[in-house]
Amino acid sequence: MKLAAAYPWPGDLEEAAALQRRLAGLVSTVNETAQLLRYVAGVDISAPDDQGWVRGAIVVLRWSELTLAEVRIGRAQPPVPYIPGYLAFREIPAAEDALEQLEITPDVILVDGQGMAHPRRFGVACHLGLTAGVPTVGCAKSRLTGRWEGLGDERGASAPLVDRGEVIGAAVRTRTDVSPVYVSVGHRIDLETAIAVTLGCCRKHRLPEPTRLAHLAAAGRYAEGVYPAEALQGALLPGPGAGQAA
């Protein structure tokens, strides 16, 4: 997969914040997803190893069944540690390495992190969306900024996530009586569609299947390659915790 853009790397956090504010103006909230989705991807990054290397996993699923179509692993040494609000500068290098290996271009990418639900309206899902040039959704396990209220307990309930009078995303209940996830626009998608895609990817677990499987892939649980439909049996590599719900 050919990346759409590359951006200069900041020298410090002040430059990083300035870059986020500048690039936030390039994010599109106009829905450009295909009317008929074929492939949906998830992105997640491992913790660093003893030498400081991380593994960035891209897992592509067939939308209709949410079965594996392709797995790619990128590797990088993040130039900065994890700092809230600056996750992209830790995770983008490994994610880009994985994206460039893809043979299948996904119709939409879900990222385990924030999109516009970010203090500077430019989280990791926005950064990856601009880099990849593909509709991108931020689906985070926890809230970084903003407030919500009035969220129903049933699956499919959502409530606007509001920061300084602006709707920046939504709290979304993907399972009844389970804590919500936080969905926001990454790039080239609107919030309504981002919520619909997220719910469509949550069929058994709290977390969307693409990012849930990307987490396992980043931990070394899936072999890299293209997975034909008939070759899915036994795709998961042995290891502790196999098949546990997220």
Describe the overall structure.
By secondary structure, the protein is an alpha+beta fold. It has a single domain, classed as archaeoglobus fulgidus dsm 4304 fold, CATH 3.30.2170. It is 22% helix and 23% strand. It is built from 5 helices and 9 strands. The chain has helices spanning 13-24, 88-99, 124-132, 191-200, 209-218; strands spanning 39-45, 54-62, 67-76, 108-111, 136-140, 158-163, 166-172, 181-187, 225-226. The chain has a 9-stranded mixed β-sheet. Strand 6 (158-163) and strand 7 (166-172) form a beta hairpin. Helix 2 (88-99) packs parallel to helix 3. The longest helix is centred in the N-terminal third of the chain and has 12 residues, at 13-24. The radius of gyration is 17 Å and the shape is globular. The two termini are 29 Å apart. Mean pLDDT is 91; it is low at 236-246.
Secondary structure layout plus pairing:
Blueprint: H1 13-24, E1 39-45, E2 54-62, E3 67-76, H2 88-99, E4 108-111, H3 124-132, E5 136-140, E6 158-163, E7 166-172, E8 181-187, H4 191-200, H5 209-218, E9 225-226
Parallel strand pairs: 1-4, 4-5
Antiparallel strand pairs: 1-2, 2-3, 3-9, 5-8, 6-7, 7-8
For this structure, what is the CATH homologous superfamily?
archaeoglobus fulgidus dsm 4304 superfamily
CATH architecture type? 2-Layer Sandwich
| Spatial arrangement of strands, main beta sheet | 6-7-8-5-4-1-2-3-9
- What spatial form do the alpha-carbon principal axes imply? globular
Report a brief summary of the structure:
This protein is α+β, with helices and mostly antiparallel strands and 246 residues long.
